[in-house]
């Protein structure tokens, strides 16, 4: 029933990764909590902060989600590091 799609591509000077599922989705409130530095769940925030620290603020992790449709996590890194 569940689908997980992982896609990687190069776009100009960027390495792009997308991880998508067709799960139950994440509410806006929970999504803001996950992305907050005050969250108990520090994994995604920690990785995003480290990417930005090493490569700059134009890189990092973005999460999009729609209740009942699924979630997409996008990761953007420089092509050359």
Write the layout of secondary structure elements.
Layout: E1 4-11, E2 14-21, H1 28-35, H2 43-55, E3 60-66, E4 70-78
Antiparallel strand pairs: 1-2, 2-4, 3-4
Q: Could you characterize what this model shows?
A:
- It is a single chain.
- The protein is an alpha+beta fold and 81 residues long.
- Helices cover 26% and strands 40% of the residues.
- The protein contains two helices and four strands, in the order E-E-H-H-E-E.
- The protein has helices spanning 28-35, 43-55, and strands at 4-11, 14-21, 60-66, 70-78.
- It has a four-stranded antiparallel β-sheet.
- The chain is flat.
Distance between the termini: 38 Å
Average residue pLDDT: 92
How many strands, which pairing sense, and closed or not: the largest β-sheet? 4 strands, antiparallel
By helix and strand content, what is the structural category?
Answer: alpha+beta
What is the gyration radius calculated from CA atoms?
Answer: 14 Å
Strand arrangement, major sheet: 1-2-4-3
Uncertain residue segments: none
Seen as an oligomer or otherwise, the chain set is: single chain
**Annotation, overall tally of beta strands:** 4
Please give the count of helices.
2
* Portion of residues within helices: 25-40%
Shape: flat
Portion of residues in beta strands equals 35-45%
Give the ordered list of helices and strands: EEHHEE
């Amino acid at each position: 029933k569940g689908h997980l799609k992982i896609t990687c591509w190069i776009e100009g000077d960027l390495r792009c990764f997308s991880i998508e599922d067709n799960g139950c989705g994440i509410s806006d409130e929970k999504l803001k909590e996950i992305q907050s530095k005050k969250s108990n769940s520090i994994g995604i925030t920690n990785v995003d902060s480290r990417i930005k620290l090493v490569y700059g603020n134009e890189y990092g992790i973005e999460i999009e989600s729609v209740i009942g449709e699924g979630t997409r996590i996008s990761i953007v890194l420089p092509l050359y590091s």
